[in-house]
Amino acid sequence: MRFRELKKQKKIENKTENTKTINYATYPDRVKAFIVDMFMIYTPILYFIAYVVMGSKDEFQSSQLAPFLAVSIYGLIYAVLVAKFGQTPGKKAYLIKIVDDKTQKNISVFRALCRFIMFLVSTTILLGLLTPFYRKDKKALHDIVCGTIEIQVKENTNQLGT
To answer: What are the boundaries of each domain within the chain?
Structure first.
């Protein structure tokens, strides 16, 4: 065989080795994971701020700073969990992992925080929540902007807290 043919054959072999099938997380599982996160992370934060910090529900409701503080704390916790493990407790329960769309590796804390902020924006305009229905890769607006994907993992190999 000629050198060019060998080189061309090697390129074809490398392309077939590098192409992995990615199992994108389903939209219903993503919504269920979000609901679990709301109950496991956000609700305790709200309770703590309302009754321990503010003293009562009425004080919490009359404050404009308290809900912002609760969302900010939740965003920081979310970003740290996603950066360290690629999962939040809800995503772990439904075997979903947030990774970089090109390398399939965990993202940084800053990028996870930007993704959370873009999630807030995309839910506010509702357009971002509808984009997964029209895309093959199931990316929402915050995934498109931040260059991430939510994939289905086969096993529960990544243990939170270990």
So the answer is: 23-152
Are residues 116 and 81 in contact, defined by beta-carbon separation less than 8 angstroms?
Answer: no
Residue appearing with tokens 């965990």? 106
What's the whole-number mean pLDDT along residues 101-116?
A: 93
Tell me what pLDDT residue 135 has.
Answer: 86
Side chain identity at residue 86, one-letter code = G
What's the rounded Cα separation, in Å, for the pair 37 and 15?
A: 38
- Asked if 76 and 70 count as a contact pair (C-beta separation under 8 A), the reply is no
Across the range 2-16, mean pLDDT stands at: 64
Sign of CA dihedral 66, 68, 74, 77: negative
| Residue 87 identity (one-letter amino acid) | Q
* Residues of the chain above pLDDT 70, percent: 84
